Each structure stands twice: as structure tokens, then as C-alpha cells.
TrEMBL record:
Organism: Desulfovibrio porci
Domain Methylated-DNA-[protein]-cysteine S-methyltransferase DNA binding: 81-160
Domain Methylguanine DNA methyltransferase ribonuclease-like: 12-77
Protein name, per record: Methylated-DNA--protein-cysteine methyltransferase
Residue numbers annotated as active site: C132 (nucleophile)
Keyword Mitochondrion: no
GO CC, any one term: cytoplasm
Keywords: Cytoplasm, DNA damage, DNA repair, Methyltransferase, Transferase
Record-linked Gene3D superfamilies: Methylated DNA-protein cysteine methyltransferase domain, Winged helix-like DNA-binding domain superfamily/Winged helix DNA-binding domain
Compartments in which it is found: Cytoplasm
Matching InterPro entries: MethylDNA_cys_MeTrfase_AS (IPR001497), MethylDNA_cys_MeTrfase_DNA-bd (IPR014048), MethylDNA_cys_MeTrfase_DNAb (IPR036217), MethylG_MeTrfase_N (IPR008332), MGMT (IPR023546), MGMT_N_sf (IPR036631), WH-like_DNA-bd_sf (IPR036388)
């Protein structure tokens, strides 16, 4: 059974969380224009707050208040083998640090795959927890974030990497 819940988190706005079988499937940022990065997972889910969704919200709030650096949640992102490899690499970027798309491509043994890494990053279903916001352009530019560049900038400032 899938469950979903939406929360308003003061620093970044709304988020939608989706759980299935005791694991987080998605964390979608709800943009100010009402758009959701990837809402289909929540479409057939029961609107109910479970203990796991409550814990995910608690950890997100602690992170946004600067009291949590590492999330401890059971995750089940769905993607291709390459996407899963990229997302695992993202989880190894330490709090307060950034990596370029090229560095992530090299980390997943695909040194010429910067664009493929960018596409995998864009499809990250559990943003913030799988920290795609920590990936920046080779020149240090803040590029490509599904929740919008102001949210990416906010998260990087929170972590002290800007």
C-alpha cells in the first residue's frame, strides 16, 4: 500500500512525501506555482500520515533548522541501474560540499557522461535526502534543480557551501 502526505516546511515551502512498504519512494518539492516535480507516484496513494512519513518530516525539519546533517530513512528510489548508481554517488557527497556533474560522472565510471548524470540528477525521486542540490556546474554555477534554483541556493547556503 502506498501512502502520501504533504507538509509545509517554512524554509523551502511544500513537500510531498510518498511511502510504500515501509520505504520512502519520493520526496517532491511543491513549487510556489503549485507544480510538483514528479507527482504521479502520489496519484494512487492513500492520503494518510504514517509513522515513517512523520519521521521523514521530523528529519526534514531538523535538517532545515541546521540540526541534522545525515538522513536516516529507508529509501526505495525507482530508476534505471545507471540512475541508481548516480543517486548512490550523490548520497556520498558530504554535507556542506558540492561536486560537479563531471566529478559525479567520473565517480560512476562514466567519465564522458556528464549529460547522462545531469538527466539522472533531474530524475532523482527523493530530492534533499538524495542530495542532488549538491551538484553544480563545472564553473561553480548553480544549474538545474527541479525545485527551482532559489531552493537549491537556499539549501547550499544552509549547508555552508555557498
Amino acid at each position: 500500500m502506498k501512502y502520501t502526505q504533504q507538509y509545509d516546511l517554512s524554509l523551502i515551502g511544500g513537500v510531498s512525501l510518498v511511502e510504500e512498504d515501509g520505504r520512502i519512494l519520493a520526496l517532491d518539492l511543491i513549487r510556489k506555482d503549485g507544480g510538483v516535480k514528479s507527482g504521479p507516484l502520489a496519484a494512487d496513494a492513500a492520503r494518510e500520515e504514517t509513522p515513517l512519513l512523520r519521521e521523514a518530516r521530523r528529519q526534514l525539519e531538523a535538517y532545515l533548522e541546521g540540526r541534522l546533517r545525515d538522513f536516516d530513512l529507508p529509501l526505495a528510489p525507482r530508476g534505471t541501474p545507471f540512475q541508481l548508481k548516480v543517486w548512490r554517488a550523490l548520497t556520498r557527497i558530504p554535507y556542506g560540499e558540492t561536486r560537479s556533474y563531471k566529478q559525479i560522472a567520473e565517480a560512476v565510471d562514466c567519465p564522458r557522461g556528464c549529460r547522462a548524470v545531469g538527466m539522472a540528477n533531474n530524475r532523482n525521486p527523493i530530492s534533499i535526502v538524495i542530495p542532488c542540490h549538491r551538484v553544480i556546474g563545472a564553473d561553480g554555477a548553480l544549474v538545474g534543480y527541479g525545485g527551482g534554483l532559489p531552493v537549491k541556493e537556499c539549501l547550499l547556503r544552509l549547508e555552508g557551501s555557498l
